[in-house]
Amino acid sequence: MSGINKVILVGHLGKDPEVRHLDGNVSVASFPLATSESYNKDGKRIEQTEWHNIVMWRGLADIASKYLSKGKLVYIEGKLRTRSYEDKEGHKKYSTEIVAENFTLLGRKTDFENSESSNGQHKDVEEMPKPEIGGKYAVDDSENDLPF
């Protein structure tokens, strides 16, 4: 039997997606996502926040760059990936990321009507397609999957 690698997160973006274009015009977007949970300990409410590194590839990265921004609430489905690299001193380091397969915008309708970009300028909402609240964004990139 093969294993299952599935991650589901609901949280707020810690900053705007950073989009890069690699060789072959492949887009990749990355951003931190905060998930919080609260519990009671000795009668006090304790909130614990976890930070996750999210990576989106190709078409999904392009969609994320248009609709996601710091503070937005989003539902993300994906899988865990751990990669290794060498730092400046030659030490092997590991980084675990969530490679998103799709996402859904969450929140109030007004969150999408008056979107502002990170530089404070108003986005012309008439120029871009309006996402539906709870609209799921996914792109089938299975035939173009990278080997890592």
CATH class categorisation: Mainly Beta
What low-confidence regions span 5 or more consecutive residues with pLDDT below 50? Answer: 116-133
Mind telling me which CATH architecture this is? Answer: Beta Barrel
The proportion of residues in beta strands is over 45%
Mean pLDDT rating = 82
Given the C-alpha coordinates, what overall shape results? Answer: globular
The sequence of SSEs as H and E is: EEEEHEEHE
Spatial strand sequence of the major β-sheet: 1-3-4-6-5
Share of helix among residues?
Answer: under 10%
Which sheet architecture does the biggest sheet show? 5 strands, mixed, barrel
Can you describe what's shown?
The chain has a 5-stranded mixed beta barrel with strand order 1-3-4-6-5. The relative contact order is 0.20. The protein has helices spanning 58-67, 110-113, and strands spanning 7-13, 18-22, 26-41, 44-57, 73-86, 92-105, 136-138. The radius of gyration is 17 Å and the shape is globular. With 148 residues, it is mainly β. The protein has 2 helices and 7 strands; from the N terminus they run ββββαββαβ. It has a single domain (7-142), classed as Nucleic acid-binding proteins (OB fold (Dihydrolipoamide Acetyltransferase, E2P)), CATH 2.40.50.
Q: Topology of this structure?
A:
Elements: E1 7-13, E2 18-22, E3 26-41, E4 44-57, H1 58-67, E5 73-86, E6 92-105, H2 110-113, E7 136-138
Parallel strand pairs: 4-6
Antiparallel strand pairs: 1-3, 1-5, 2-3, 3-4, 5-6, 6-7
What's this, in brief?
By secondary structure, the protein is mainly β.
